[in-house]
From TrEMBL:
It comes from Streptomyces sp. R44. Residues 1-35 form the signal peptide. This is D-alanyl-D-alanine dipeptidase. Its cofactor is Zn(2+). Catalyzes hydrolysis of the D-alanyl-D-alanine dipeptide. Binds 1 zinc ion per subunit. It comes from the Bacteria. Belongs to the peptidase M15D family.
Amino acid sequence: MTGLATALRTLAVTAAAGLLAVAGTVAAPAPPASAAPEPKAPREFVALSSVDPTILQEMRYTTEHDFVGEPVDGYRQPLCILTRPAAEALHRAQLRLLARGYTLKVYDCYRPQRAVDHFVRWAKDLEDERMKKEFYPLVDKSRLFADGYIAEKSGHSRGSTVDLTIVRLPAAPTRAYVPGEELLECSAPQEERFPDNSVDMGTGFDCFDTLSHTDDPRIGGEQRANRDLLRGALAEQGFVNLPEEWWHFTFKPEPFPSTFFDFPVARRSVAGH
């Protein structure tokens, strides 16, 4: 009997172990699916600094000093990314301006679609007007879509559009924006706007106002000369100005005229290009 009892106990233990193994196999959770890798830029995209390190970069959408009042989705690092033809054309324009005692300064370059989506969500939230006094003091926020200030697609996402200005050399530093500080109207005279080392263009960057129209008749004198200097220097290299924004230029022909990219603004997006 003892031998039989021992055998039965052994069989029971073996069977229990098998059941546990089966149960463990059934109950074990599936390994988590690996996160989809972030998209990278096509090889036709480059960091502007790799083509021309002398062009100043003040990438506004990585900061809180923009019309939404916070860093914008998709801007991981303060980096200007453009298609190579656009970057090389900016380099040629820069060489001509340097000879005249000026430098270009970019505010925004390639813009991921997720950033455009962020702008759209912000524009639909009519309660969020924290930056109104500076960037759209005279425009009702409910009019931003109808008046063309915000759209669901942007040429910036195609990679050959850039927002920029001109700075006289030697370039003075621009002081940092302090979140919560008193806002100053972007359409006010230069000495009453937020300080920027740009030459006087008549308004600040991203000013939602008809005064920002490149050929607005109220702009004359030095301001007109500065706008014409910027437009002329870029037009010589194949850039076309958006008439509603003195700072907005698109290189033609665009390498990607109908593709809206969504890779993040980060060095890894163009690593090795």
